[in-house]
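Data card: per-record layout.
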Amino acid sequence: MSASASLIPELEDVIQNASAERRARTVQRIANLFVDGADSFNEDHIGLFDDVLCRLVVEIEAKARSEMAQTMAPVANAPTGLMYRLAKDDDIAVAGPVLAQSQRLQESELVELAKTRSQAHLAAIAGRSDLGEAVTDVLVRRGDSEVVRNVADNQSARLSEGGFSALVKRAEGDEDLAQKVGSRTDIPPHLFRELLVRATAVVQQRLLASAKPETRAEIQRVLDKISKEYDKAAPARDYSAALRVVRDLQQAGSLGEAELVEFANNKQFEETVAAVSVLCGVPIETADRLMAGDRPDPILILCKAANYGWTTVKAIIMARPSGRGTSNHSIESAFANFEKLSASTAQRVVRFWQVSAPDDDI
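The structure for this 362-residue chain is written out next.
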């Protein structure tokens, strides 16, 4: 410890008289000295370094603070006062490494930082290992989309039931977040069901496809239950006349995408559903359920699988009973999702719909 002790006499001179460059060099020299001997220092030694570095750190520029933060953040027994001072720095280049890595920050300090610092600070905290519920509750409440996605994606982060509930609500309309939340093994069952109810058909299928075998059956059971509850709530439509029209066109060789668009543009909903059923090879009960919902995702999947264009997709969306209330934003969002959706993924989902019994559709 003699080397660090020898630095004390020059501390006042450095603070009072040294240039910014000399102060920065001194700080980095002391930080390197600490890192080199960290394994051999006791708490008294660490406290001495803490006092010295805390006095110097306020006298150096942001670049030097950032370099020190990167040096000290991974050190298991780094000075606690210094770590907290760096963690609350306004400059995320300084605070980020400490918030993301330092194990010397107490949970109470992380809670306070999460309550008061910027979204960039919160994003750094969200990626830490072993976050406790007190911290994640604040992150989920205050964080922007990036922060809550990072929290949901952090499998070592512990979430309270209230935290999960808030994530489920925020996941509505955010497919990426919904998939991350739904992929967590610690989500309470009743909130997982709520997530599936709120999720788009695309997210439901992604969760089903990515689930482990032991989980997949439970997801399918929940989706089946949702589907059956929907069936009980919705009165059945009579498609017999529409199916006769469509099948006559099919037998005459006159049924294709153009005829489907014509039905949709004329707001002939039953004929549109019947044409989708026949052209896509899905049971009429399935086509009815997929087409009657508020979300356009099943339509995107059916049309992508059939290699239909966006004009067809838009016409079908607007032909639904809820089509008149579709906003421009919803149409733009549907177009973006349609462009991102691959034909292979869509065809895989449609094959599931084709072979499922009516009561098993989603």
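Known properties of this structure: Confidence is low (pLDDT under 50) at residues 1-5. The longest helix spans residues 213-233.

See the next section for split statistics.
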